[in-house]
Task: structure prediction
Amino acid sequence: MLNIALFGPPGAGKGTQSEFLIKKYNLFYISTGDLLRKELAAETKLGLEAKSIIAEGGLVSDEIIVQIIEKTIKSNSEANGFLFDGFPRTYIQAYILEGLMIKLNSNLDCLICIEVPEDESVKRLLNRGKTSGRSDDNETVIKNRLNEYKQKTLPVLNFYKERGNYFAVNGLQSINKVTEDIEKLINVRLSKKLLNIVMFGYPGSGRGSLGKALAEKYNLEFVATGAMLEGEIDAGTETGKKIKDLYDSGKLVPDDIVVPLIEKKIEESKDVKGFIFKGFPRTLVQSYILDGILKKHDSYIAKIFEIEVDTLELIKRLDQRSKTDACMPYDKGADKIVKRLQEHKEKTIPVIEKYKENHEVCVIDGMPTFNEVLESLSNEIERSFKDV
Result:
């Protein structure tokens, strides 16, 4: 996902550049003014709240605005990202947007400011007034708008400068050159973004083999907690002995063992395009841990898959696997298989439901052949990230 805030004084050319960004990167345009007008026209609950405030001569609160933005983001999950125009407009709104992005397991990739000197802004807007017929395009109103922009916007720009995702573009250049400079900035940011995928599915759904195949195909790092834990067992470490005892009793390995191994894996993986996580997160607590680990690396979950396979087919596959070299400790015996399936239902299904609140969880039919399921996963990845 690519999220951009576009700034610039009145007359900087934000409208023209917004059209380019929306089309080029398949972004959904978010203008608080436009969204508010839609809510008012549709007479939604939020729209009616705003209408009553406006009728009394008040300003619509940030609380209402952020709810409208959150609703818009959630209802347009097919977009590759969002372009914010006119928001955040204040220092407080900058914090609001940051909190909203964290809640949605995302972030604002960059704030791009088209810089134009005040005298140039005045000149452009006066020229526009001669042809547009807009009553507000006169020198007095224009200077008031520019003064308000400077007073309210400077703290917002400083907010993002401190976070290292503020970028300025010279707005005195030709339209094409401004567009070219913006595109270069975004492409640099995109090159640093990690494509992080979480694979969900019951034991036996094939998520491990499919995850490995996707990692190889898209040059991602495959992070499987099972493989890391098995590595500790094979190495005969003290941690490995604890893991083996837990496996033998059919219990899940606790977070204080799993998390350091995942952190180590991520730290040691250099120059990768992203990670595919299999076997983590398994619990609600682990879902918050993963968000925190990724946030530490200025990243987040980009795609979530859930592989669906019929229960009888899962039991059949796990039973067959128990007779091969790929046998896992919990494959040995019907009682252990059933216990693992039950644990997944009780502990992991709530995690998937939690992610569905803020993410598009893509459900893939895992019943066809391996290659057919892999193709479905690949198509979904390429559809979602074709522009990014």
About this structure: The chain has two domains: 2-192, 197-384. Strands lie at 2-7, 27-31, 81-85, 110-115, 166-170, 197-201, 221-224, 275-278, 303-308, 361-365. The CA atoms of residues 96 and 356 lie 22 Å apart.
